[in-house]
Design a protein that fits this description.
This protein is an alpha+beta fold and about 270 residues long. About 15% of the residues lie in helices and about 40% in strands. Strands 3-9-8-5-6 form a 5-stranded mixed beta sheet, with no helix packed on it. A 5-stranded antiparallel beta sheet has the order 10-11-14-19-18, with no helix packed on it. The longest helix is centred in the last third of the chain and has 20 residues, at about 240-260. The protein starts with a helix and ends with a helix.
Length: about 270
């Protein structure tokens, strides 16, 4: 009974946060001379490309006066069998597909092979690149990933306090205030202390997988700063200082072997 309840909870959660996005085939898109072949209502792009999250659905609407198809694959290699409209899409008809796996899914119209696009399916995580470039010689950097309906921006790394501080930008876009952040263990090691706007947060979850710590926090609506304190943080010495230290140590060893008497006299 408990297992059934847990499965039902997961399914319900996915349904609540999954979204649907339209891609329209505008009038005249059947002609290779058309200025564009798709209208992406999510981003406004006319390239046929769209980025969505796992569980989301894309709906292709035929707003043209000609028949079309939507088939996964490429004109050069043909359909790959992942998805496709089984019948011709007459004017006013649509085809939809829900994406349940990460990946890149190219598609095209068999009748008009110049109409191509790609669905990029992600797990919903954004990336803060090159975290740690201000530490040591700047050669040891990490990507920090997070899932949140607002944006995070790294503002400080405190080596003494073993602290990462992020600014929280924008307003909540949904009722889900859960922040999930992935931290490489080589950047900062747990267990962690979480501070939001100067106040210590005690209710959060953390897990570890393949040297990546994932922290899940329910954030206040009006939060502005997030600080994560660990037990260790990115080493002070980068690659270059270590090489310099190794060369210096080797030089001392060679000098001692060559002039052992001189060393004893010091």
């Amino acid at each position: 009974m408990i297992s059934i309840l847990l499965v039902s909870s997961v399914v319900f959660t996915n349904l609540v946060f999954a979204k649907s996005y339209d891609i329209n085939m505008p009038t005249g898109s059947s002609s290779p001379e058309a200025p564009y072949f798709w209208q992406n209502e999510k981003s406004g792009l006319a390239t046929g490309d769209i980025e969505i999250s796992v569980g989301d659905t894309v709906v292709w609407q035929n707003a043209d006066q000609a028949n079309h198809t939507v088939v996964s694959g490429t004109p050069s290699e043909g359909p790959d069998g992942v998805f496709g409209s089984s019948d011709l899409l007459a004017p006013g008809k649509s085809f939809q597909f829900q994406f349940d796996k990460k990946g890149q899914y190219p598609y095209y119209c068999i009748l008009h092979p110049w109409m191509t696009g790609t669905v990029f399916v992600t797990d919903g995580y954004k990336t803060i690149p090159k975290v740690g470039k201000t530490i040591g010689d700047g050669t040891k950097v990490f990507d920090v990933e997070y899932h949140f309906d607002r944006l995070l921006s790294l503002v400080a790394i405190d080596k003494e306090q073993k602290l990462l501080t992020f600014e929280i930008v924008g307003r909540p876009q949904s009722d889900d205030n859960t922040l999930k952040i992935r931290l490489p263990s080589d950047l900062i090691e747990g267990p962690f202390i979480i501070i939001v706007d100067g106040k210590k947060i005690t209710h959060f979850e953390e897990s570890k997988n393949n040297e990546i710590d994932t922290i899940s926090i329910t954030m206040p609506d009006d939060s502005k700063l997030l600080s994560v304190m660990g037990t260790t943080i990115v080493p002070e010495f980068g690659t270059l200082p270590i090489i310099v230290l190794a060369i210096a140590s080797m030089s001392i060893i060679l000098w001692v072997r060559k002039f052992p008497i001189g060393l004893k006299s010091l």
